[in-house]
Amino acid sequence: MRLGYKRVSTIEQNTARQLDGIEVDKVYEDKCSGSNTDRPQLQRLLDSMREGDTVIVHDISRLARNLTDLLQLIELKFIKEAITYNRDDKNQKLMLSIMGAVATFERDMIRERQAEGIAIAKLNGVYFNRKQSKAIDKSGIIRALEDGLSVRKTASKFSVAPSTVSRIKKAELVLI
Questions:
Q1: Domains of the chain, earliest start first
Q2: Active-site position among 9, 48, 97, 133
Q3: What pLDDT digit, counting tens, does each position of 12-53 carry?
Q4: pTM of structure
Q5: Which of 20, 73, 148, 163 has its CA 20 to 30 A from that of 94?
């Protein structure tokens, strides 16, 4: 079987361009970081693979962000790089190692540029992380919930996300 794998880093991103026009028997898609292989759909793909199956991925960075993870996977086909990888072929293993090292380097560079950008923004007073920008009034949220206000209305009242209110509510239930 030809098994397709798509991945983007966030829920807001779109996988439409990945494997566009490529014929596969089944597609697995994750919307989460590629920093490790602990991804639900990737694990499903690996669990469902049988001997002779080929995994088809748009490009190396969609599958893994580090060389160790890449080399541990079975037989792969990368569309963008036009490479089919078989772990028994020393030349293909070398090529994949080089490309994996480049992908790892690229990820490290992205992190470095991001850190530099954040540092500059902080110096210019335009970057605030959540904890610095405002303190969450946990006791006020708890009181509002105890008074019968819904999670959504409480979130709106305290200018926080409903998930924040739910997290505080859940933590408070554990303490009681």
A1: 2-102 (3.40.50.1390), 130-175 (1.10.10)
A2: 9
A3: 888 989 999 999 999 999 998 887 788 999 999 988 988 888
A4: 0.51
A5: 20
Contacts of residue 4, defined as CB under 8 A and 6 or more positions apart, other chains included, come to 19, 22, 24, 26, 27, 28, 55, 56, 57
- What pLDDT, on a 0 to 100 scale, did the predictor assign at position 12? 83
Distance CA 143, CA 152 (A): 14
Strands 76-78 and 83-85: antiparallel
Closest CA to 86 of 163, 95, 129: 95
Question: Catalytic residue at 9?
Answer: yes
- Spatial separation of the C-alpha atoms in residues 152 and 149, rounded to whole Å: 8
Q: Phi and psi of 79, rounded to 5°?
A: -70, -55
* Spatial contact of 100 and 67, defined as CB atoms under 8 Å apart: yes
Using one digit for the tens of pLDDT, what is the confidence trace for 85-139? 777 788 887 887 888 788 788 888 988 998 898 888 888 877 766 554 467 888 8
